[in-house]
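Our consortium's second objective concerns turning raw sequence data into structural hypotheses that experimental partners can test. To show how far this objective has progressed, the report includes one record in full. It was chosen at random from the queue rather than selected for favorable results. The single chain below, 384 residues long, was entered without modification.
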Amino acid sequence: MQEIKTTASEAVEHWTEFDRLMMARALELALKGQGQVSPGPLVGCVIASPGREVIGEGFYVYEAVKHAETIAIEQAGSRTEGATAYVSLEPHAHHGRTPPCTDALIAAGVTRVIAPIEDPNPKVSGSGFAHLRRVGVEVRTGLMAYEASRINEKYLHFMRTGRPFVHLKLAASLDGKIATRTGDSRWITGEAARVRVHELRNEYDAILVGIGTALADDPLLTDRSGKPRRRPLVRVVLDENLRLPLDSTLVTSANDHPVLIFAGQAAGEAQLQSLESMGVEVVRHEGSRRDPITTLEELGSRALQSVLIEGGARVASRFLDAGLIDKVTFFIAPVLIGGREAPSALAGNGAATIAEAIRLESIDITQHGQDFEITGYPARPVVR
């Protein structure tokens, strides 16, 4: 993800412990909208009185229409004169689904707004801060910018590129295998890790697999976290020759959970019509093989701001080799599968030298039962 840059004055800005506590709370509130804001951002707001008392809180949920700032202002009531608003993202100053948040803050008598980062949405991008400053509201930025950018990494990436944020998730044994030599892969990881996978799915707009994984596992690929979500999880299959069986779990559930297949021009017309009659959407591409970037552009054109890739090895490597993976999560189980014919987590050509290997940064390691979740971001320059 693109690094958030701050000005020299922001870099040396002095923040009080109270400021940090309030911004941490605003970010915590923002996360309450997880799964319920796409294609918008996660936003939380805390309003504190001049006497450093929290008088209002709010977070954004798309269907609720009202923005976090408005909710916090309404909760605070008549006590907002001279208050400080801590917002996890730049307030907007344009008329969209709601009136400008900047107008609401100004009308409430808020005299100081602290927000970590700008909103890269062209309709916002700096105009919210500019509007507040024009009428004399003190605006300070940069506080917890890294944390704020991570929370909204999907939205920020989508706004900057027009393509979904891509998160590669794979489960592997300790020796790097994703199945046995016979193709058996259920289950490499334990129940606790699988619960966590569904929590991850809840964060994403789409989930993507190759036809090899679809044929081998006959997966359902739904979000079974039990957490609320605004949009249905779009299940995407890369199936060049339309080999997905009509009696597969994906196809038979297409009327309840959307399925989008990317296929080639050579795919059979009869199979295409049969799939479409069962509720599957098929997108054909020209040429011998679909470029991963065109797949992402198609998903982006549908306002899908994030996609979770769950396999298989060849699909993962195609996106990785193209520099299109923004985040990586491996669930590692303490089991040894072995076997030269057992598939490894990644395929493709791979690195020729260790120096060329893709290294991850900002590593986070969490244990789930006996399994370990290792998450990081590719450190190499991303091809765009």
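The partners drew two points from this record. The CA atoms of residues 60 and 67 lie 5 Å apart. The longest strand covers residues 165-173. Both points have been shared with the crystallography group to help prioritize constructs.
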